[in-house]
Amino acid sequence: MDSKPRIINFPKIIDPRGNLTFFESNNQIPFEIARVFWIYDVPSGETRGGHAYYEQEEIIIALSGSFDVVLTNSDGEFIKVNLSRPNYGIYLSPKTWRHMENLSTNSVALHISSKIFTEEDYIRDFESFKSIVN
Q: Is 51 known to be catalytic?
């Protein structure tokens, strides 16, 4: 599995009554799904995330609205990916530092995860993250 973040395009069924997008484990999702959660009602100017995972893989999708996913490597360099459509998302491998910012009003961020929640899988300190990945 390629460990670089990448955009995943999901099928889009176009219909004049409204479009439909879906994903299926083992087809569009490159891991076994263990947990799904969503983030919403984020106050203006707030950020979410600010961590990495030791083992968890994740896909983030903007189901509604838009936001930026900011990925930071161990040298402090970052890339910013804007998510604004529900038919694509970003795949994040383990040991990828991330946070979300610029969340629009009424945005909904869907997170599809390969692991159930466990605090031990989180890397919450950037200095620790740098030493782990180097």
A: yes
